[in-house]
Specification:
- It is a single chain.
- The chain has 283 residues and is of the alpha+beta class.
- The protein is 23% helix and 44% strand.
- The protein has 4 helices and 8 strands, in the order H-E-E-E-E-H-E-E-E-E-H-H.
- An 8-stranded antiparallel beta barrel has the order 1-2-3-4-5-6-7-8.
- A hairpin with a 4-residue loop joins strand 3 and strand 4.
- The chain starts with 7 loop residues before the first helix and ends with a helix.
- 25% of the residues are buried.
């Protein structure tokens, strides 16, 4: 079962509309759409936020100095394809995957689960937005917000007086990733980044424990990564250029089927035509 919260549709529609407008605006610049792409790979640690946890689900109370902060952390991976729209804004397609687990001693309960997420997100360059643009700036601070779909599965166990009970859950749900990042530019092609994000899932079953009145569950993620900037190996030609190329291709195809004597006569004819055109221009 997946719980759909009342504001999910409004939030999802707004983010998707904003990102699609940005993409379509850039796509109209047909000659530049193939330029300025990036591929990024990140690795980091995740943490669960929901019912079966001891971390109180509050960002302000979750710091590296908390006693439970480093408990139940698991490696997670993230791969991102990014189109640079402008110096201030990027649009990215992102895939993330990892494992989750946690426990709640007051319930004698624990769970283990997995997730796979695909999202479309936008990145805003706060450094150039809040301060004057500096082409030589090496460090950039940026924000991330998006909308996606997450496939989750979980197995939970809790103990009664004499028994151990098991609950399972799996399914798909909408997700909203929000985060901050710090990027260091090494060169025109390479940069490294550090990101912290919170992924809100619109379900109460990521830990397989349904509890009425709870807010959406999800996971936190911080990671280190590297990016490579490149241009796509294609470009959209202008119509007149395409037409000229098409004419030349047809002409070359016809010439390849002519004999040497026919090609010689054609060459002489072209020379006479050029001379005649030159004579008319002189008159």
């Amino acid at each position: 079962m997946t719980i759909i919260y009342p504001h999910v549709k409004r939030v999802s529609f707004s983010i998707i509309l904003f990102l699609l407008i940005a993409i379509s605006t850039k796509a109209q610049d047909r000659s530049g759409f193939a330029n300025n792409w990036m591929f990024s790979a990140n690795i980091g640690l995740d943490a669960f936020y929901g019912d079966i946890t001891e971390n109180q689900n509050k960002i302000t109370k979750n710091s590296p100095f908390s006693g439970f902060y480093w408990e139940n952390r698991h490696p997670a991976f993230q791969f991102t394809l990014t189109k640079v729209i402008s110096p201030l804004f990027d649009v990215s397609l992102q895939y993330a995957m990892g494992n989750l687990s946690d426990q709640k001693r007051t319930l004698n309960a624990s769970f283990e689960g997995k997730f796979k997420e695909l999202n479309l997100n936008g990145t805003v360059n706060f450094s150039d937005l809040l301060f004057s643009g500096n082409p030589n700036r090496k460090f950039l601070i940026y924000g991330i917000v998006g909308i996606g779909v997450t496939n989750y599965s979980a197995t939970m166990q809790y103990s009664g007086s004499d028994t151990v009970n098991t609950l399972t859950s799996k399914g798909f749900t909408a997700s909203v990733p929000i985060g901050l990042g710090l990027k260091y530019i090494i060169s025109k092609k390479f940069n490294v980044n550090f990101e912290m994000s919170r992924h809100m899932l619109f379900t109460d079953l990521q830990d397989a424990w349904p509890e009425a009145g709870r807010s959406p569950e999800g996971y936190g993620y911080f990671s280190l990564g590297a990016s490579y900037k490149f241009d796509m190996p294609f470009n959209v030609r202008k119509r007149n250029s395409f037409g000229a190329q098409k004419d030349n291709t047809i002409s070359n195809y016809k010439d390849s089927h002519k004999s040497p004597s026919q090609l010689k006569r054609k060459k002489k004819k072209n020379i006479r035509n050029k001379r005649s055109t030159y004579g008319l221009k002189r008159k």
